[in-house]
């Protein structure tokens, strides 16, 4: 059977922001979540993927936002990207952090339409405690994970390749559930490999997206 045509990520547009699982969009179709520490280059990676520098907004206060931000790839709204807030440097009370962690874990473990996760790691500081926690949550749910070693342009080819091999070795116990690649939002290296992975995760038989209602929600003015 012929594979579905590649998705046009340039068509990505904002749908809504949700503070928890209960207020997420309808749990149907397929979506991929993007996670990473506040300085891992997550927003830059999403904006490079969609070729829209303004899609995933950044804040001058890293970690401030505690919302799941949903973007759709066409009017049907059945194929979505989800920007999870970075949480490495949030200056908020511990109780707030704990609440967000509970909401995030619930989303990762209970969201039926979640087809996979893209986890961003700064290639110069991979596999932090936060990264390992995300790997643990994903693998407990048997959810596929694709890791981007971001800012690969900051290292020469030799050290970058060595880090790639080291991370793959550290995660080898998870087998095919986790894949790893080099990525640079600055020059686009690794972009096609990322898109190819997302195409597989977001593939929905054409019959499922016929006659779906159009999405009309607009983006609020506040930072997300």
Q: What is this structure's SSE topology?
A:
Layout: E1 13-18, E2 30-36, H1 42-50, E3 68-72, E4 79-83, H2 94-110, E5 114-122, H3 129-140, E6 145-150, H4 157-170, E7 178-182, H5 191-201
Parallel strand pairs: 2-4, 2-5, 5-6, 6-7
Antiparallel strand pairs: 1-3, 3-4
Shape by Cα distribution: globular
State mean pLDDT (0 to 100 scale). Answer: 85
Q: Strand tally, please?
A: 7
- Which parts are unreliable, with pLDDT below 50 for 5 consecutive residues or more? 209-224
How do the helices and strands follow one another from N- to C-terminus?
EEHEEHEHEHEH
Structural class: alpha/beta
**Biggest sheet details:** 7 strands, mixed
Approximately how much helix is present in the residues? 25-40%
Give the helix tally: 5
Strand order of the largest sheet: 1-3-4-2-5-6-7
Proportion of residues in extended strands: 15-25%
How far the N terminus sits from the C terminus, by CA atoms, comes to: 40 Å
The value of Rg in angstroms is: 17 Å
Describe this structure in words.
The chain is an alpha/beta fold and 224 residues long. The protein has five helices and seven strands, in the order ββαββαβαβαβα. The chain has a seven-stranded mixed sheet with strand order 1-3-4-2-5-6-7, with helices on both faces. A hairpin with a 6-residue loop joins β3 and β4.
